[in-house]
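Illustration: GMP synthase [glutamine-hydrolyzing].
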Amino acid sequence: MDIIEHDRLLIIDFGSQVTQLIARRLREQNVFCEILPYQIVTDDVLAEMAPKAVILSGGPDSVTREGSPRAPESLWTMGIPVLGICYGQQVMMEQLGGKVLGGKNTGGGGTAEFGRAYVTPTEERIDLLAGWFLGEKEQAWMSHGDHVAKLAPGFKVYGTSPNAPFAVTADLERNFYAVQFHPEVHHTPNGPTLFENFVRLAGFTGDWTMEAYKDIAIEKIREQVGDKQVICALSGGVDSSVAAALLHEAVGDQLTCVFVDHGLLRLNEADEVVAMFRDHMNLKVIHADEVDLFLGELEGQSDPETKRKIIGRLFIDVFQKYANEIEGAEFLAQGTLYPDVIESVSFSGGPSVTIKSHHNVGGLPEKMGLKLVEPLRELFKDEVRALGHELGLPSSFIGRHPFPGPGLAIRCPGEITREKLEILRKADAVYIDQIRRHGLYDEIWQAFVAILPVRTVGVMGDGRTYDFACALRAVTSVDGMTADYYPFSHEFLGETATRIINEVPGINRVTYDITSKPPGTIEWE
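Result:
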């Protein structure tokens, strides 16, 4: 299926950490959309894309700064609906003749807002806000230092907040809409309704589905790969498994999966993964036993970024080794998802801030001689699972909790040793077994044990112990960008701690991590 058949909505990315959440809201409305960084959206690019509507994202810059990002001037004369969000609102005002002032540190008068705020309506209601203000006010998430001080000609105010007198503005004649808050985040509960209203106003029919995405992705893979051979980095997790199934449907026997056993896997995972793909799905799978290589290079390393970089480098080295044995191999496929990308570098090269590096993001060194195929790069985890269903993967496999590419290395803060990994595998197996026994597995986004780099004193029987402490982690989430800890009962936690201490030699203390994301991340490193 050709993507040109779908009406397209363009999201111009000004560097917000949550730009991709805008795309999520649109996909929930079955609207095909693309995100491009503002740097490459020229007048010519805009004309060639011919989008049916445009959304301007938030961003970390200030429109009051000389040389700050702008939208193409031709956008304002295309006659299509435009929605500006936060920085996008400020860009719209500044380019169309309004005025934006800096925050209190730059003479703006102290109108910054960060966090929860409440928007109240003006007397005149507009279609963009249909379904809003059923009560006196709507909760919205604000994150701005600058603020609009003067509206551009043609705009009127339709919603205000305590520190944003122009929280919702619009020029109805030109179909230009702008909001100071972030309707894409979950902290704006009625945000999806606003997006639903916008795409309806723009005339979208909602004809884009995961089935359509599958067809598009297959065509893109075939166009990129041609008749060349592809190596797929298969970890056995949901992401790489769906990527492998998608690639196999696209190029068939041109695909060879390489499963790297790096010694950082969960209990019995290597055997289960190889059996699943080689024996049941009939894919070509190379089982690469590289335990000694990885653990040898990680020995003595405790810095999390150093560990990630070592693992990333070794993955590349291992795939290069096996690529040399496969005649005609020119591509390396990975199951990279958007949360990986957004935490490493802004989507499509945009200007957002790096959070942490990921082993499978950033391309490959030129010396490797392989080109990268990342067919899931624009998707969130729940979308990957939906794609897996479209590809016919079993639900039991698609529903597995996420497992990081660096494996247990990032669940073992401090130095990695074989002893600690063995303790960690056993503790994690007990924990997951407990979750399954209590029927909680499908309620939880991700659960795991982290072994802590401290030993604690304990008493077992009549003897003193001096063993490791561990932390249990379980979170609920929709897309991996934000997460809350799972509210286990004290009975469950007590029972689980008792089992781990009794069944896993080397652990004498169990804790439960109740940190949300943000401020923490889901993984410990």
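Reading the tokens back as a structure: The longest strand covers residues 446-460.
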